Amino acid sequence: MKKILFISRQIKRFTILFAIGLIITNINLSAQDFMTVPSASKIQRLKKSKTYLVLENQLISEFNIEMKAAMQQHWYMTDFEVISAPDFREFAKNKTNSFIYLNPVVLEKDKTETAYLYCFLSLGHPSGKPHQLSDLISIPLAIKGTEAENYSYKYGLILKFMQNYIETVDKLSNPTSKSILDYFTSQNINLQDYELWVKTDEVEASLRTKAGFSSFYPYPFKFADENEIRTAITENRKNTLVLHLIKAGENRYCLKLIADASNGNLLYYDYHKTSKKTASLLLEKDLKNLSK
Q1: What is the 8-class DSSP label of residue 3?
Q2: How far is 104 from 29, CA to CA, in rounded Å?
Q3: DSSP H or E run through 22
Q4: What are the pLDDT digits (tens) for 151-163?
Q5: Rounded to whole angstroms, how far apart are CA atoms 84 and 81?
Q6: Vertex 230, ends 229 and 231: CA angle to 5°?
Q7: Which DSSP string corresponds to 125-171?
Q8: 169-209: per-residue pLDDT in tens?
Q9: Helix 40-48 and helix 155-171: axis angle, to 10°?
Q10: Sequence-separated (6 or more) residues with CB below 8 Å from residue 132
């Protein structure tokens, strides 16, 4: 099985005051990006909860449309309802509720203080304050301000991974970051049985031909477009791997995830700091790491 590479970092989260705007809180979340380790009791609270999808407080929002549709098709762990952003604070006071919502975070060690947009799955807290909710998992979507159409077609994959991750943690005995990593990296998966789908504009220039790509990745692959990837996710296409790339500007962090389109099972995660010489794309070295 190919290695999944994680980086341990702290993140600083913004608090969303939906009726007012955004303010930065000085809260350090000890995390391995999205690799929170929820306790067994919190997982049981989630399973017994009703999950509320918190809509953005915008007249026109691709998240509101696309994520609601994705929830209806791919969310199976709990019953769910949709609530408006202004109602979030009141619903969040109930510890028996869980929530899926967007929130920007800043990596604590990132000197550029670039805001990354994350999708959170969290449990309620009596204070109702978003920054005090119990986070079960948070997944990076894009740099804040990126057009939603660049990642919204993968919302179904994000939801699948959230649930897959929770189920993985739940079945491990005394899970830790290490034991979760060990579980993923010990999966007996033969890449010859899977087809990796990537967009040509998300890989570095040397990989944008079949010959160039196959010289670093000797397994089935396909250059796919957004509609094809959306269809693969929607139809739970078997034996298909999808790249989720978080592009960033120079001197920022580019995040890369590869997961199974059918169930969200994570197979690869890595990051690199961008520069004039290192683009914010899937690199040759990623394919080398994945192929080891």
Answers
A1: P
A2: 13
A3: strand 21-31
A4: 999 999 999 999 9
A5: 10
A6: 90
A7: -TT--GGGSEEEEEEEEEETTS-GGGTGGGHHHHHHHHHHHHHHHHH
A8: 999 888 887 788 778 767 888 999 999 999 999 999 999 99
A9: 130
A10: 125
